[in-house]
Amino acid sequence: MTETAHTTRRDMHNDFDIEDVSLAENFEEVLDDLVARCPVSHSTVGKGYHVINRHADVRRAGQDWRTFSSADGWLLNPPDESIPILPEDLDPPYHDTWRRVLNPFFAPKSVEGIEDLARKYARQLVDGFAEKGECEFVADFAAQLPGLILFNSIVPVPVEDLPQLFQDIDTYSFGPLEDRIPAFARVYEYLNTYLKSRAEQPAKGDVIDVINAGVDRDGEPCPWEDKVHILLDVIFGGLATTTHAMSGAVYHFATHPEIRKDLIAHPELIPNAVEETVRLYPPVVAPARTVRKDVEIGGVQLKAGDRIALNYAAASRDPEACANPTEFDIRRTDIVQAAFGVGVHRCLGAHLARLELRVTIEEFLARIPDFELKPGTKPTYESAQLRTMKNLHLVWPTSA
Questions:
Q1: Within 10 Å of residue 334's Cβ, how many Cβ atoms?
Q2: What pTM did the predictor assign?
Q3: Are 238 and 168 in contact (CB under 8 A)?
Q4: What is the DSSP letter of 268?
């Protein structure tokens, strides 16, 4: 590979590191360079891995679970104490058995029934700062709405437990490396206790009852630990991802007032804005897979046992899949994005995420149609296999 042209401190073609701060700081620039000039990049970090960057190759690998297995986990260099997130860290047929019982709770019809609740919470959050003329959008809105929706409609965790649970999930997903495993352990123990307490209560017909009922694995009831790991995935998937997409949408409208005004004038384009948001502000950057048999992809020979990352974020910016991929185009007719994954591991909560994004855009623009970045500020990010915006300071005129 030739020397990279962007401004990172690393050669991201041959010495890729998904944890490197220069990737977080130059995210789009690095992705575009990889798509244009490096179909498969290489990393020597930890045990080493390859990164699949182009849309066609990411789609091919994501759809071929037999060759590119999820069973060794989504983390590229997992710590020894790492616990699987299920069904993400499973292959069929066991993966599919769990998805069949979980899917109904996240299907379009079920998600439609949540819309009024989602809209109520969105309005309450906007009401909390609309008259102030400013907010820190991540803390004041985006970090709160997904949890309010999830824990009041799908996973009914006691409300008094939520602050600590939110904090520990955020620490595990984006905190310092040394703090992630202790935070995960606290979340695990909490959910383990919660599932056991629910198992002793009368059935409520919700997703917790379904998880407690379990499924068969190889003709036997699945182990208890798998049930806890399933709930972990529901929680982390519902909280650790949508916040970034919400923040990305509002940041883009703050910095592109022409798009914001166009959406206000043409609200029927908001579903397109949702798709463009997840395409250009993807929360899931690159989950890991393990190669099960020798295979060539992107012109690179991989061997059985190699670890790879499917670069969803780069694939969504591939000009071979999407014309003018760096542009946020709400009139695009060829929206092709990999943000929700491909193949059997396509995101369980994709319909819920779309609802949350649509409600966020509609309610925020309805109440605060004219806003911009607070002068002297710009967002900061945490970026690795997941990406999140840490802060977004906005200001707008008020009637006061």
A1: 10
A2: 0.93
A3: no
A4: G
